[in-house]
Amino acid sequence: MVADIHKGNNLYGALAYNQDKIDRGKGQILETDRVFVPYDGQFRVSDCVQDFERAMPSQITTGKPVIHISLNPHPDDRLTDAQLADISREYLEKMGFAGQPYMIFKHEDIDRQHVHIVSSRVRGDGSIISDSKDYERSKKITDALEQKYGLHPKGESQKEAWQLSPVDASTGNLKKQVANVIKPLSEMYRFQSITEYRALLSLYNISVEKVEGSNQGNKYEGLVYSALDEKGNRVGKPLKSSLFGKSEGVARLEEKMHSSGEAIKSGKLIEGTKAAVSDALKASRTESQLRDALRKKGIDVVLRRNDQGRIYGATFIDHNSRTVLNGSRLGKEFSANALNERFADNSLREDLQKSAQNIPNVPASEGKDKQPQTGITDVGKAAGSLLSILTPETEGQNNQPAPRRRKKKKRRYGRQM
Fold first, then answer.
1. Contact at 8 Å (CB) between 155 and 111?
2. Contacts of 219 (CB under 8 A, 6+ apart)
3. Do 49 and 15 meet the contact criterion of CB atoms below 8 Å apart?
4. Which of 212, 216, 226, 228 is least enclosed by beta carbons within 10 angstroms?
5. Percent of the chain scored above 90 by pLDDT?
6. Which residues of 48-64 are buried (b: 16+ CB within 10 A; e: fewer)?
7. Which helix (H) or strand (E) holds 70?
8. What CA dihedral angle connects 84, 89, 93 and 95, to 10 degrees?
9. Residue 327 contacts residue 385 (beta carbons within 8 Å)
10. CA distance 80 to 71
């Protein structure tokens, strides 16, 4: 059994993520404590948030009061709902959360059952439940639970529990789909630039642009999210980050990138990714072989090309350490230039062309990041067309024009789950 622990400040987002599973018939509530749920099981996120808040003091001293855990038994384990609830409750108690409000959800949206637990790290007296060495403690607890309940031991074959659904603009409810992806991703992964964040989102058919401007002398800046089709074109109505709350705005994103940079500076997060990518490169003669080798290691690579097909951007997304890294951060041998030379000079263009016909490419939008000076889609124009979306509305101006859809020759690589 694998435990996946996430700490954050977005209680509403954590509960909404689980409510979405229930709404789609892919989840149910197994057990709650100190949180009221109607008999029909159709809980209201806002009501549950109030129940959690009543158990906490009005003033808290931590920036991450919420804990969201997924417990993932082996696919061959067959457990009843009562057993899943018992295991979840025992896990929480052994982790030090006895007496805390919690909700336990069962998910059935992938090839095995697993549970998600939402609880609070803040006790009623304002003290914080320590997270010191929580991953080491968690492993010991799951090992003990495996033995107690006769479960299969954890193994490398167990898949990632947080399998988010890519956005599909054709199904409607675009705002909710985008929110269900960006909220958990922004908390789970570390990235240091808007380019790295955009590469991560592209795996789930989402793009993001940072836009800046001024209105009557007042400067403003913001983020605009858009859904992408299979060819990397923006589709549907662009969505301002304010629609998703302050936690998804520019200020919070910059804080996230800064804190991620501090964590990555230690080098420990990069070492594993660098070694895995290096091994994959040694065993790969073509781009498609590299992708296959990396995916077996739990890593995605997002390449950006200009109109001539030259690689000018490479980003590696390590789902094991949840770290997003531009190739140049790993080293010169992993940079876009190095990869372009490697695959352009190996005389296997025919193989690359075949893979390009079958796998979509990522959009080449790079915002303010460095780009080649020729043959690249003009992202400045695209971002400029988005400015009207963020411009503060003035009297008599209620409808803002939607940005022009850009035709792209580029196609997009991404994980479809």
1. no
2. 212, 213
3. yes
4. 216
5. 38
6. bbebbeebbeeeeeeeb
7. strand 66-72
8. 50
9. no
10. 14
Q: For 184-214, b where at least 16 C-beta lie within 10 A, e where not — what string?
A: bbbbbbbbbbbbbbbbbbbbbbbbbbbbebe
Q: Which residues have C-beta within 8 Å of that of residue 28, sequence separation ≥ 6?
A: 22, 41, 81, 105, 106
Q: CA-CA distance, 159 to 161, in Å (whole number)?
A: 6
The one-letter code for the residue type at 352 is L
Question: In 10 A of CB 358, how many CB atoms?
Answer: 8
Report the alpha-carbon distance of residue 56 to residue 250 in Å, rounded: 28
Give residue-wise pLDDT tens across range 202-243. 999 999 999 887 777 788 788 999 999 888 889 888 999 988
Most confident of 6-10, 111-115, 298-302: 298-302
Beta carbons of 192 and 199 less than 8 angstroms apart:
no
Gap between the Cα atoms of 148 and 156, Å rounded: 21
Q: How far apart are CA 9 and CA 247, in angstroms?
A: 9
For residue 224, which of 379, 397, 72 has the smallest C-alpha distance?
Answer: 379
Domain residue ranges of the chain, discontinuous segments joined by +: 2-149, 169-264
> Dihedrals φ, ψ of 24, to 5°?
-95, 10
User: ∠131-9-168 over CA atoms, to 5°?
Assistant: 120
The domain 2-149 having CATH identifier 3.30.470.20: the answer here is no
Runs of H (alpha helix) within 97-151 = 134-149
